Amino acid sequence: MEQEALFRKQLNELVKTAKRQGMYVSAEQVMQAFPELAGQEQKLAFVYEYLNNVKISVGEKTAFEAELSEEDRDYLGQYLESIAKSGCVSEEEKYEILLSATAGSEEAKSRLLEICLPDVAQIAKLYTGQGVYIEDLIGEGNVALMMAIDMLECNDEAKEADGFIANIIMSAMEALVEEEQEADGADQKLLEMVNGVAMAAKELAGEFRRKVTVKELAGEGDYSEEEIREALRVTANKIEDIEAE
Fold this sequence. Notes:
- It contains 10 helices and 2 strands; from the N terminus they run H-E-H-H-E-H-H-H-H-H-H-H.
- It is an all-alpha fold.
- It folds into 3 domains: 2-58, no CATH class; 65-181, Rna Polymerase Sigma Factor, Chain: A (Orthogonal Bundle); 184-234, Orthogonal Bundle (Arc Repressor Mutant, subunit A).
- It has helices spanning 2-20, 27-33, 41-53, 70-82, 91-102, 106-125, 134-150, 161-208, 214-218, 225-234, and strands at residues 24-25, 57-58.
């Protein structure tokens, strides 16, 4: 169990590194993360497969634009153009603003919000290709940015504020992606159920040579009355082999 926990920790750290680098790690970084896997091709293959499944490139950077629709590319271009001047400050100036924001200055918080808008767009690029529009990612990131800036006074060190803000933004985007993927999974299951009910109704109607009732279909045991009625509701009673109630 300890080895498994260590492996998961190493994998999570590697994923964090990839996200900081734009969803990319080098082969050398993989080996640095897992030095004990040198020569163990099968276990290394598992790591590479996992990274591929979470959209992390190994060896060379993948242009994130390839994951974007034309609509997303147009939106991102317009958005970046609209905020192009927002982040134009030196590192020293940004640090001073962070200091003031951490100390509670509302003026500094407002300026920091403007400065960090381009960072939100850059972070959003890390989550493209996972079923969420980049406009939605940026919107969610901007809300998280405002929350993070309001929480800055809880941080003791201004130098840690950048990382704190980025983590809040990334967590919000990750939650959005997860929520969308769960919704997609639920939609797929519902579609499969509706198709299954329709096929079962067609088969039974063929035997009876007439439309079947909900109770008759439920009596076959494949689907409950509740599931059949849900399928009818979703299709607005358009499953033709089931008698309307």
